[in-house]
Amino acid sequence: xxxxxxxxxxxxxxxxxxxxxxxxxxxxxxxxxxxxxxxxxxxxxxxxxxxxxxxxxxxxxxxxxxxxxxxxxxxxxxxxxxxxxxxxxxxxxxxxxxxxxxxxxxxxxxxxxxxxxxxxxxxxxxxxxxxxxxxxxxxxxxxxxxxxxxxxxxxxxxxxxxxxxxxxxxxxxxxxxxxxxxxxxxxxxxxxxxxxxxxxxxxxxxxxxxxxxxxxxxxxxxxxxxxxxxxxxxxxxxxxxxxxxxxxxxxxxxxxxxxxxxxxxxxxxxxxxxxxxxxxxxxxxxxxxxxxxxxxxxxxxxxxxxxxxxxxxxxxxxxxxxxxxxxxxx
Length: 330
Hints:
The chain is α/β, with parallel strands linked by helices. It is about 50% helix and about 10% strand. Strands 1-6-5-2-4-3 form a six-stranded mixed sheet, with helices on both faces. Strand 5, helix 4 and strand 6 (about 145-150) form a beta-alpha-beta unit. It is globular. The protein starts with a strand and ends in an 8-residue tail after the last helix. About 35% of the residues are buried. Residues about 185-190 have low confidence and may be disordered.
């Protein structure tokens, strides 16, 4: 998928470029930049000295040196002073400047840390929202795979109120579904097995003909329904798959393959991009052989946002990641 939130060590990401959140000297101040310098070796420090610093909100680029990436993009995030001193605008500028350099140098994949959320004190939930919103806006106009790399659970946080609301919503529905699953089912008595299977005859031949006729009149496939819905909403293909956080190559496979079988997260991502009401979302899932269930936390979280009229795939992915669920898109 174009934007992925992952838990990993950014120095080990096999991408075209990684982003280092650093200080104005570009020589690191611990945290992510310190880890990058240690992994890259002394050549990276020498390359940074030659750049003679960087202003807050701007970015510079060097070779990857001893890292698995081709480039390191260095950017200087804002220090947090309460949020009333232009911090968000400068943080947005960091992401935009880094992405502009990545595009200029032909990068197709970039890994970002959560800029300014460590030593610089930017609240993690606000830093996350700003990162996702800025990257999403970029991806609406560009093709690139971008990773938001979180080193550990403590470094990742969605808003506490949102987390609590989703937790309560899950508890209400998931627990009830588990109770229903544990209830013993009433067993229907089985019909006695015939001593001998009936011989094939005219009736069986007629049934076979009816089955063949039914198969010849299959309803529209998932792919056909998706393309029809895109047209009905006056969207372009690109607008739809970008809004769904779907890779262009995957969309091409779906468009060219009438009987393509997508994954459930992919189907839901498209349904959200199209802002389908719940009934139509269920229909689209059924076309691909899926359904929503209160026995699945993933499904319940999606339902939580849809019930509130929030179809933003990127925001829903933040919540899914926080609850250790698969992400939407591909």
